[in-house]
Design brief:
Layout: E1 3-14, E2 17-28, E3 32-36, H1 43-50, E4 58-63, E5 66-67, E6 81-83, H2 96-102, H3 112-116, H4 120-139, H5 155-167, E7 173-177, H6 185-201, E8 205-209, H7 213-219, E9 222-227, E10 230-235, H8 237-242, H9 244-252
Parallel strand pairs: 3-8, 3-9, 6-7, 7-8
Antiparallel strand pairs: 1-2, 1-4, 4-5, 9-10
Length: 254
């Protein structure tokens, strides 16, 4: 189907520290691609370049053939890109529903004047946004928690809230930063099943960073491996598992 995301010869330097060193790979539309590597390998730095948090020192990132450098950071979501974070970035005093509504702002067309006055168009837009948010909350299995404040919920449920907030914007490409991190074994299995549904039912292409190897190998079409900012391997999960460089750098030498 063609490359939805292209990372081309990408380097990022912070002073004398090289966080990424000429990394290249593609994510084709319809794929689930995992980005793995030891702590400090450059995975989150790469996510931050894709989402315009950081600037690349060299190389480029293309979304649908468009360089991300030409996109304002607050407009990345309008290009079909959404993201979750390793440590959930939610408004803890707000309810689940209100947090998910925040992710829907890209589809709400009424301006601040219309939103501040209960005009028919604004009321209709608000009702439609609420409906979309509730549908996505139901999709991730949190309907009974919709009116609860996020701060009162366990971490594993908060991960699902953040996922719903990302999905309500209807992204084509979803970046997931350690979706299985910090949750129980049972929750890891449930998250894997949920992300498979995101992929198959919603048709979302995914790029994920993850340390949980069984999770990665069970959900991914392809795996890209970083070590000290360099790409050391790329291929199917089975190919990567057998790669001697990966075994030594990440999985542990025998």
């Amino acid at each position: 189907m063609g490359a939805l995301l292209e990372v081309k010869d990408l380097s990022v330097r912070f002073g004398g520290v090289v966080a990424l060193d000429r990394v290249s790979f593609d994510v084709e539309a319809g794929q689930v691609v995992a980005l793995i590597g030891p702590n400090g390998a450059g995975k989150t730095t790469l996510f931050n370049v894709i989402t315009r948090v950081y600037r690349a020192s060299h190389g480029t990132v293309l979304i649908d053939g468009n360089p991300v450098q030409s996109i304002r950071a607050h407009n990345v979501i309008r290009h079909g890109l959404a993201r979750t974070f390793q440590n959930v970035a939610l408004f803890r005093s707000m309810t689940v529903l209100d947090n998910v509504l925040v992710g829907d702002h890209v589809q709400t067309r009424s301006g601040w004047v219309q939103a501040s006055i209960p005009l028919p168009a604004a009321v209709t837009a608000e009702s439609a946004a609420r409906k979309r948010a509730l549908e996505m909350i139901d999709f991730v299995g949190l309907s009974t928690h919709a009116e609860r404040p996020v701060a009162a919920l366990p971490f594993g449920i908060q991960k699902r809230v953040e996922l719903a907030r990302a999905l309500v914007s209807r992204p084509r490409l979803l970046l997931l930063d350690e979706p299985a991190g910090g949750i129980s074994h049972e929750e890891v299995d449930a998250m894997a099943k949920l992300l498979r549904r995101v992929h198959t039912d919603l048709g979302v292409t995914m790029l994920l960073v993850e340390h949980h190897m069984a999770f990665v190998m069970g959900i991914s079409d392809r795996v890209v491996v970083l070590d000290f900012g360099k790409k050391i391997a790329e291929g199917s999960p089975a190919e990567v598992q057998r790669n001697p460089a990966v075994i030594e750098a990440y999985l542990g030498a025998a």
